[in-house]
Amino acid sequence: MEYTIILLRHGQSEWNRDDLFCGWVDIPLSDKGKQQARDSARLIAESGLDPKCVFTSKLTRSCQTANIILEQLHREYLDVYRSWTLNERHYGTLQGRSKSDVLQELGKDRYMFIRRAFKGCPPLINPESQYAAIEDSRYEGVPHESLPLGESLEMVTERLLPYFESTIEGVLKEQKTVLIATHGSIMRALVKHLYGISEYDISEINIPNGIPMVIRLDESFKVIGDYTYLDPEVARVEAEKVARQGFKNHS
Ligand SMILES: O=C(O)[C@H](O)COP(=O)(O)O
């Protein structure tokens, strides 16, 4: 028995386009992001993969990405599961700030430590701030102390894995192929966990918007081979652009 996860970072959001830290702020897809979602659907259809259900975060950009794909695949009837544990990492006080301003203020080492080190955590935001983004009816029922005010990739991993192991693995067992439309930090946390990537090596991995990644698992949910992108060349170029965000002439 083999299981397949199609793992996808949402299409470009308006704040990705404008180079702002986004995190839990609920920003929609840009026009380019909507096109990337349509392109993802085409790549999935061409690959012959046939997802039987979908997971998204509670953030609009991941829901929009999944909706566009389901529409393009004529699969709008599929079950969709949404969880806050698939949200982007909370970027604390950096949410809403320009990446190049933060780079200038903190310097390259600190900026890259916060963005990419496994234990790099942004300064926690005041829950009263307009950009804290946790006081929202979509998080009703989530214990208040579970909602983050700033997270490292390590903290993201701690909130993601219980959901992955309890819910996603259970659904995978029944459905065999699932699509997870989510965020860059969730993808980094998941590939680190599944492929046993070191803390050092994960800091070098950047995830492009809107290019499906395929992960194959055996019956005990161990990975088979390496992960692949459905468009490896575009994924490589776009991942490099993500790495350079905030730096001059990054795009
Ligand atoms: O939340 C954000 O700003 C991005 O989606 C992820 O940003 P990063 O690539 O700087 O971690």
Can you describe what's shown?
By secondary structure, the chain is of the alpha/beta class. The protein has one domain: Phosphoglycerate mutase-like (Rossmann fold, 3-Layer(aba) Sandwich), CATH 3.40.50.1240. The protein has nine helices and six strands. The protein has a six-stranded mixed sheet. Helix 3 links the parallel strand 2 and strand 3. Helix 2 crosses helix 3, helix 4 packs across helix 5 and helix 6 packs across helix 7. The protein is globular and about 50 Å long. It starts with a strand and ends in an 8-residue tail after the last helix. The site of 3-phosphoglyceric acid has 10 residues, from loops. Its EC number is 5.4.2.11. GO terms for molecular function: phosphoglycerate mutase activity. One of its GO terms (biological process) is glycolytic process.
List keywords for this structure.
alpha/beta; Rossmann fold; 6-stranded mixed β-sheet; 9 helices; binds 3-phosphoglyceric acid
